[in-house]
Write a structure and sequence with these properties.
With 228 residues, this protein is an alpha+beta fold. Helices cover 17% and strands 31% of the residues. It has helices at 7-17, 26-31, 41-45, 137-140, 178-182, 191-197; strands spanning 19-22, 52-60, 68-79, 82-87, 102-105, 112-114, 132-136, 146-151, 164-171, 186-190, 212-216, 221-224. The strands form 2 sheets. Strands 1, 2, 3, 4, 5 and 6 form a 6-stranded antiparallel β-sheet that branches. β3 (68-79) and β4 (82-87) form a beta hairpin. The longest helix has 11 residues, at 7-17. It is elongated, with a radius of gyration of 23 Å. The N and C termini lie far apart (59 Å). 20% of the residues are buried.
Length: 228
Amino acid sequence: MFKWLPKPIYDLYLRHFGTYTLEDPRSTAKSAPYTYFLPSESKLSKLQPGDLVKLVFCSHPEGKKWDAERMWVEITQITSDGLHGTLNNIPFDMPQLKVGDSVQFQIFHVIDIIPTVETDEKAEPERQYWERCLVDDCVLDGSTPVHFLYREEPETPEGDKFPDSGWRIRGDYRGLTDEQIDARKMSYIALGKVLNADDSWLHLIDEPIGSGFIRDFATNRYLPEGSQ
């Protein structure tokens, strides 16, 4: 709506008529458990005034560039009807909000925490899967399950802070010709993205370079390559 207006005029419109809602991140975390991580119940239970929490603000109508922004809020009060705080960020594309604005939210809206006081609690760090792999796009979009995977010597691409895992992953190719398999598009992407779509091979992820496995769809087990 009215996004064709010049940005200064559109910002003025948002400032006077725009609103926002807070995104509930739980459905995203459920659908992408290997790439979208929420604070633990233990950390959420220890929230107190003065802590900073990150929330996802969704602009209505959408901003010129983004429809949502992740911003920090300082907790000022915790009551039976939820948490209260003040915005601690300068919004980039949401002129209907400014630093210091009051924000009311629920504990499930929190996607990250900076506590006022660090505790001595030594939580076991949750493993994350940002190492890269090469995978058929049909696996990523969920239309095809993983069929064959092998691990080769990793490459060292420039401009990526995460290393190549060496894993190469092909989707179900039963009934396809070699030409059809070779014609598939592939992506170089985080392992976690693949696991979000199909984590049936997670138990193999630390197998050494040179490993290869083929899925037996009758038993849904992965057999070492060449053992069939």
